Amino acid sequence: MNYQEILDKLRECYPEVKTALSFQNPFELLIATILSAQSTDKQVNKVTQSLFEKYPDANAISLLSPEELEQEIKSIGLYKNKSKNIVTTSKMLVEKYNGIVPCTREELIALPGVGRKTANVVLSNAYNIPALAVDTHVFRVANRLGLTQSSNPLQTEEQLMVIIPEKDWSDAHHWLIWHGRIVCKARRPECQKCRLNHLCQYLNKSV
Q: CB count, 10 Å around CB of 99?
């Protein structure tokens, strides 16, 4: 398996990609990423545009009740649970970090509603700290291409970190996400138009 050839081709296909979530600062990215679970980035951006105009920081959101926040985010999936987590997280940020989002994975994961994927998104996109967030697209595409042979996101992350140079972790995360969104879709992958189809383990197994 020529991992480098696959990575070079992904870089060529998606040279300038970045997160589709709109944000101005680490707090906005943290909240947007929490909201993005089982929702589309497009819908999250629509919700956060008005949310952050009304409540621009951790202090403002910490003063809301979960029920009040629910009214702002109810078009998002799992909004009741997310509302509780976001209010509690905002209170913790105010009380423990003076409203500033911490920049270590351990501290981020300790916040309600923040798992390893969300923490890695914040580290790489808000703080430019090398991290490789694995969402459903990254998990699917990495396994289909044969970059990984993993059964869960943590295994995928660990295997990708071995074959991808640290300086490229954040970029590779975006290459794999966008390839999964545009071409290597979950149900109907567009293999015939894929520029990596001659390298793809998934396609070569199925033909």
A: 15
Task: Report, as residue numbers or ranges, the catalytic residues.
Answer: 117, 135
The residue assigned the tokens 């071409």 is: 183
Do 56 and 127 meet the contact criterion of CB atoms below 8 Å apart?
no
Domain annotation for the chain: domains and CATH numbers? 3-17+132-206 (1.10.1670.10), 26-126 (1.10.340.30)
Place of tokens 């969104």: 181
The rounded distance, in Å, linking the Cα atoms of 98 and 113 is 19
Of 202, 124, 116, whose CA–CA distance to 164 is shortest? 124
Tell me the pTM. Answer: 0.92
User: pLDDT per residue over 100-120, tens digit each?
Assistant: 999 999 999 999 999 999 999
CA angle 78, 28, 86 (to 5 degrees): 40
